[in-house]
Amino acid sequence: MTTHVLLVEDHAFTRDGLRAAINLESDLRVTAEARSGEEALDVLARTQASPQPVQVAVLDIGLPGMDGIQTAAEIGRRYPQVRMVMLTAHDLRDEVLAALASGAHAYCLKSADPALLLLGIRAAASGSAYLDPQIAHHVLGSIRTPHATSPLTPRETEVLRLIADGQGNRDIAANLGISVSTVKLHVQEILVKLHAADRTQAAVQALRQGLL
């Protein structure tokens, strides 16, 4: 059985190399490509109703515009059946934790042996999780180290979690049993505390900071 892969990478040279490595495998096939997160969402909107829908999206974390973390969160919201592999050139703790919080099922380094990326794709496709051995220590460290104190109240955190799930004010109010005006007040406080310009930016910052 062939796993159909969406490759999301803005650098043509890197994208060509990744495509070649993946397509050498008999059970994997790059059937869609995108150069940005926005383009990836457009591609998925077209391909998911086709006879060969994408099953795994391989995302560069450093995409222009909507970055890989934002893209993963949006793909997870719109297409929960698509598994996601995050690919990065950096071994950074905050990026690793934010990527996992955004819904990525595997995390791989570009500098690693290509066989590890293939392992990550196969693990994600099978419903498992995979972390490059070089970055697994970040996750272990986050388990052993207490989380930073959140500036948000428990109720504001609940509201922000629902915002990250894509819910509007009325849905949030219904879910939490509060008025829409109260939700709006919570949103205003969240934006101020996280120094965010809008709801999406607030959700992304919270993911990056491990607040959700």
From TrEMBL:
Stored InterPro entries:
CheY-like_superfamily, NreC/VraR/RcsB-like_REC, Sig_transdc_resp-reg_C-effctor, Sig_transdc_resp-reg_receiver, Tscrpt_reg_LuxR_C, WalR-like
Q: Which CDD domains match?
A: LuxR_C_like, REC_NarL-like
Record has Aminoacyl-tRNA synthetase as a keyword? no
Q: Which UniProt keywords apply?
A: DNA-binding, Phosphoprotein
Boundaries of each HTH luxR-type domain copy? Answer: 145-210
For the modification 4-aspartylphosphate, which residues carry it?
D60
Classification via Gene3D superfamilies: 3.40.50.2300
User: Which PANTHER family does the entry link to?
Assistant: TWO-COMPONENT RESPONSE REGULATOR (PTHR43214)
Name of the featured protein: DNA-binding response regulator
Q: Provide the species name.
A: Deinococcus daejeonensis
